[in-house]
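Exercise 7. Given the components listed, write out the predicted structure of the assembled complex. Treat all entries as one system.
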Amino acid sequence: MLSIAPNFGNTFIIIVLIRIMYYGLLTIAFSFLASQLGLFSLMVPVAFGVSGYTIAILETKNILIFPYSALVGIILALIISTFLGVMVNRSKGTYFLMLTLVLGQLAYAIALQWVSLTKGTTGITGVNRPYLLNIANLESNILFYYFILVVFIICIILLYVLINSSFGVKLRGVRESESRMIMLGYNTSLIKWVAFMVSSFVSSIGGIFFVYFIGVMNPDAISLNASVKVMIASIFGGINSIIGAIIGTGIIKIVEIVLSGITQRYLLIIGVMFLIVILLAPNGIMGIAERISKFGTRFFKKNSK
Amino acid sequence: MLLMTFINGLTIAALLFIMAVGLNLSFGLLRIVNLTHGSFYLLGGYIGLYVYKATESWIFGIVAAGIVVAIIAFIEEFTLLRRVRGKPTLETLITLSLAIIISDLLIVIWGGNPKTIKIPELLKGYVTLFDANVPIYNIFIFCFACFICLTLWLILQKTKIGMIIRAGVDNFEITSTLGINIQLVFTLVFTAAGFLAGIGGAIGGTYLMVAPGEDWRILTYTLLVIIIGGMGSFGGTIVGSIIIGMIFSFGNVYVPQFSLFLMFAPVAITLVIRPKGLFGRITS
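Answer.
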């Protein structure tokens, strides 16, 4: 459905879909950790920011160009995530949430403070979209759209394979009872760390598309508002599924676009919506859909008897 | 210079202590991170400013800030958090959503421009200590934090309610089996933490500034204090505030661009050596 959408839509819809997809990568990264390990990481955007900033710096200073700069961006994001992953590895539950909030905020503050490298609040401007291997000019939105779509789908497929592999089962084992997994002889810190790295990898890919699409990299991209929006999108859609994360991102982005046309303070409304969802339907839209389908099958069975 | 930096560090530490001690107590007892605490701080600052301008009395502004924020904390605990008690992640998410709502509401009401609360006449001026001119207000913040520290310590150690709170931090289930209404104690501690945050906001707003974004900044530092000091630990909060206050002050003077990189160091070291914090006993 997504692949034929641009033929019907105008440029605006394509831009919205591209935005949904690169924020979607971020939400998937969050959702992966939250659904498989039960850990709510508020520093998912850090990897997003690191890869984005690396590319922006390398390209504007003419050090490296596209495939290499993106590669360096991902590698750097993974290196930093390695340290962060080790730091948060032993915590869980609300303590993990608090720790990632603090580390994410520190990363944001550093991006704001390290003016000589990141140019502070204004951010780095003038990142041009690459000539992809001299064949397709990614300048046009349609080509950019197809490129991000392919990467997006590959990421989702890879995550699905991972979730359904034996590694995914181990992750859910850690989520349900870490002490039992340790007793069974698994190195749970390693399992958690690998999951964290996978999440960072997906998030850093989102950062690449973000910086090339917007052309500007500023600290707002990794601010607390950004990470909270990711979390809200993920919870909106349903924390237990990747599909839910994508739907949630779609809803939040559309709500944001519609509301930001009306008022500057749309975050207030999103916050209220978030509160209502947590209180009334903690499993989000996918949870509601599940409830309806369960009700439907029960209803159907009753009638067929 | 060195002495002045040290005194600034102590002032920040005192401010962080006022913020962190309430948060840490409610953290130890309720087992949730109240992410609304930063918004409480900013709300306290704005209310203090508003009442100070209206009544011309700084003391009155501070008391009003404390009371209003305490009422809001009470409402939050009583109407929202109680509904999902026993699910710590959901409770924390509720506090987060409230923090977003409050910080956006504050921008709607008071606008986005930074404001400062004027230092009252009584606390203006300087005292010469050795060879540094120390503002009286810094000394006031430090003394006030010491006062709060002493009062809380006396309450925790010498009164019955303090005994219940300490028992609750160690194990609230067993405490409640002794016939103690633990939910009431939860509400009380949460409200008291809100009161302290409101006062901290008005006092800190006079020292720093009242502006959007300050809420998350202060929350980050407060949480850093708790991570380093340890959850539910009174002594840990003191040590943690001093460490963070000093790093903040010295970092800003000697390596202004990298002062926040320095913040990573104590966190990383603490998490590697003692994941529960320097004085923490509680596992999450």
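Discussion: Chain B touches chain A through 46 residues (CB under 8 Å). The radius of gyration of chain B is 18 Å.
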